[in-house]
């Protein structure tokens, strides 16, 4: 297929094409699906229609871990009563096979998040040692706070006087300690003790404290090799170690070091959806997960030099947009608007207005290269571990030591490409305002102000019943489900029932696209108690907490709730639930496992690849609650999904003795002073 300047090069039309309305509830997405079909361009939505999932693979009971397989153990019609007699060639049972497959998803997900964290730690170290001019420590307050968590001294005694230690010295030692967490030969991960004491002691008692990040991932791969671990309970125990190494290790370190390097987010306004793209501007879409590159793209694109250069080439300016978690990273720190979530990445190019799409790692569809061939778009890969085989893809390997030069080259390439646009530009005119950039610190500020910042306000409103509980709703999109539908249905049902929602990743972008991330949305969608709290403190009923590694912010916020008092001594005791409505990625399985083993009831939408091994599934869905206080669940219907979360929240309220709302009392000054906050 040859490219023609100024023209869309159309692909041969496929026989099976998806109904746009059945594919997505988002109007902008529907419009772009119609456009793709008119142009004969296949998208993920069409492929989901024409390619059905493997019936046995979706049950989780297909083993291809050795060359005697694949061994396929379908669930017999009518199910199995009693002992499961199905076996692979080596004798592995359905439970062993399903547990191994589950474990390998945890390993891959934990590796993806933790390798992200390692890359950030390496750049952090370069900045701390002054080896790069592009990156500097932006948040010294958080640097000192993180240093204390990592056991790095922040003061020094000189002649009997305690003085603040030099920030450069602190930064270098923080970098050294952080990098050591990936491969230290002995001990345990330092951040585990950030969890509530009761939770840490439970992990210690159960023998699941991660030793270092890399070891736990490697051990899963060893255990799931043919002929090693054949006890599904023991495999899940190692899943716990690896997932905790993700949530309380690699991801948490990634979030903290990114905040120090690029600035801790605070609430800001922006907007979301494909309508953020501009026909008279150079449109650059950054897509992936690591903000190391995108931070430099933002800096260069905002420079007067590049803006002037764009105007010389006939554009009115430069419009940056994001896809997936890179979008969330540059949104929460700079207000750069997300162009869409995971399933919209092809559609951003199909607008015909995308002059360059710059990608790094994770959730990047290889079909972007095929779609880019149909337009003028430059598709640029930037990471040494993430290349594409197609010949129209440009690879510019990003190096933190030459970060600004690399970013400038990329932005300049996009500007030069503006003149090559065809006449067939169609940008859907749909976008919604949003407020993003919440975190542990900003939530604390909103609840109590500069001098009385505390999670006590949140706890008090949970205890008195205005807020029924809290839900973390996170994760991806999945082309096997109607785009955005489950996420929005579940979240609207939760906030209608006075449940405050914390969101990250593509779920957060979905909420932004559909108007749930503004304070005004509380009056429209939230129940009376939650709406009152939102109006009082000026927040939305759904709080954007960042990218998928920033699920660590949810863990720490949960810990702050426990510390504030009145809602038990552990995360498992207070009214909280987790959800991944449209999950797709192996990262979601790692996230789910570390939430479950942190004590959170966690519901996945669609299907979990465990149904072919009922005994193993029962262990995840029932037995884990007896061990960790949290458990997995799976619900296809989104309304039922939300109500199972609400039922769990109500159960926890009853156990705490706060299931009946407290009568509201007008407090005098003496009563307020008696509050220990």
From TrEMBL:
It is an enzyme of class 1 (oxidoreductase). InterPro entries: CO_DH_a-bundle, CODH, HCP/CODH, Prismane-like_a/b-sand, Prismane-like_sf. Signal peptide: none annotated. SUPFAM superfamilies: Prismane protein-like (SSF56821). [4Fe-4S] cluster 2 binds at residues 63, 66, 71, 90. It comes from the Bacteria. One of its GO terms (molecular function) is hydroxylamine reductase activity. [Ni-4Fe-4S] cluster binds at residues 289, 325, 363, 476, 506, 548. Its EC number is 1.2.7.4. Its cofactor is [4Fe-4S] cluster. [4Fe-4S] cluster 1 binds at residues 54, 62. Gene3D superfamilies: 1.20.1270.30, 3.40.50.2030. It comes from Candidatus Desulfacyla euxinica. Keywords: 4Fe-4S, Iron, Iron-sulfur, Metal-binding, Nickel, Oxidoreductase. One of its GO terms (biological process) is generation of precursor metabolites and energy. The gene is cooS. This is Carbon monoxide dehydrogenase. It catalyses: CO + 2 oxidized [2Fe-2S]-[ferredoxin] + H2O = 2 reduced [2Fe-2S]-[ferredoxin] + CO2 + 2 H(+).
């Amino acid at each position: 297929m040859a490219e023609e300047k100024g023209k869309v090069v159309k692909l041969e039309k496929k026989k099976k094409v998806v109904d746009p309305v059945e594919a997505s509830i988002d109007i902008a997405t529907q419009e772009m699906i119609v456009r793709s079909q008119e142009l004969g361009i296949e998208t993920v939505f069409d492929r989901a229609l024409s390619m059905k999932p493997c019936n046995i693979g979706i049950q989780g009971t297909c083993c291809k871990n050795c060359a005697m397989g694949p061994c396929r153990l379908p669930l017999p019609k009518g199910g199995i009563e009693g002992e499961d007699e199905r076996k692979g060639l080596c004798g592995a049972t359905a439970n062993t096979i399903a547990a191994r497959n589950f474990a390998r998803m945890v390993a891959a997900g934990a590796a993806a998040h933790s390798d992200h964290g390692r890359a950030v730690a390496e750049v952090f170290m370069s900045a701390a040692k002054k080896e790069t001019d592009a990156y500097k420590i932006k948040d010294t307050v958080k640097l000192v706070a993180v240093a204390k968590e990592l056991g790095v001294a922040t003061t020094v005694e000189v002649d009997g006087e305690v003085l603040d230690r030099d920030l450069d010295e602190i930064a270098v030692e923080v970098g050294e300690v952080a990098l050591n967490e990936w491969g230290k030969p002995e001990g345990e991960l330092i951040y585990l003790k950030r969890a509530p004491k009761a939770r840490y002691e439970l992990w210690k008692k159960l023998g699941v404290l991660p030793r270092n990040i890399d070891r736990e991932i490697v051990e899963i791969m060893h255990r799931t090799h043919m002929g090693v671990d054949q006890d599904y309970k023991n495999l899940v125990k190692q899943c716990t170690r690896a997932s905790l190494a993700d949530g309380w290790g690699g991801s948490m370190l990634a979030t903290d070091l990114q905040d120090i390097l690029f600035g801790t987010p605070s609430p800001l306004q922006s907007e979301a959806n494909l309508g953020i793209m501009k026909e008279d501007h150079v449109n650059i879409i950054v897509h992936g997960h690591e903000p190391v590159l995108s931070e430099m793209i933002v800096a260069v694109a905002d420079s007067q030099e590049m803006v002037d250069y764009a105007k010389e080439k006939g554009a009115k300016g430069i419009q940056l947009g994001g896809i997936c978690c890179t979008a969330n990273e540059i949104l929460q720190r700079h207000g750069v608007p997300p162009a869409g979530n995971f399933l919209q990445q092809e559609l951003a190019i199909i607008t015909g207005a995308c002059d360059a799409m710059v990608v790094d790692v994770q959730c990047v569809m290889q079909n972007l290269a095929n779609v880019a061939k149909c337009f003028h778009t430059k598709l640029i890969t930037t990471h040494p571990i993430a290349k594409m085989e197609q010949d129209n893809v440009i690879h510019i390997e990003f190096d933190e030591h030459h970060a600004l030069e690399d970013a400038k080259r990329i932005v300049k390439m996009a500007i030069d490409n503006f003149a090559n646009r065809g006449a067939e530009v169609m940008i859907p005119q749909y976008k919604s305002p949003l407020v993003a950039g919440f975190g542990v610190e900003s939530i604390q500020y909103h609840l109590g102000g500069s001098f009385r910042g505390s999670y006590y306000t949140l706890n008090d409103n949970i205890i008195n019943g205005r807020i029924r509980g809290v839900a973390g709703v996170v994760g991806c999109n999945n082309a096997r489900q109607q785009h955005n539908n489950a996420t929005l249905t579940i979240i609207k049902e939760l906030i209608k029932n006075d449940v405050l929602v914390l969101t990250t990743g593509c779920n957060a972008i979905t909420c932004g696209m559909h108007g749930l991330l503004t304070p005004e949305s509380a009056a429209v969608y939230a129940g009376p108690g939650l709406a009152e709290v939102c109006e009082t403190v000026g927040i939305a009923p759904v709080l954007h907490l960042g990218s998928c590694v920033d699920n660590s912010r949810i863990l720490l916020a949960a810990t702050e709730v426990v510390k504030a008092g009145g809602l038990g001594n552990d995360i498992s005791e207070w009214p909280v639930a987790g959800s991944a409505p449209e999950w797709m990625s192996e990262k979601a399985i790692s996230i789910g496992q570390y939430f479950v083993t942190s004590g959170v009831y966690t519901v996945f939408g669609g299907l979990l690849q465990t149904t072919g091994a009922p005994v193993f599934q029962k262990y995840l869905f029932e037995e884990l609650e007896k061990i960790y206080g949290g458990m997995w669940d799976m619900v296809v219907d989104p309304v039922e999904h939300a109500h199972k979360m609400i039922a769990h929240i109500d159960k926890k309220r009853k156990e705490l003795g706060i299931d009946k709302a407290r009568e509201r009392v007008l407090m005098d000054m003496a009563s307020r002073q008696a509050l220990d906050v």
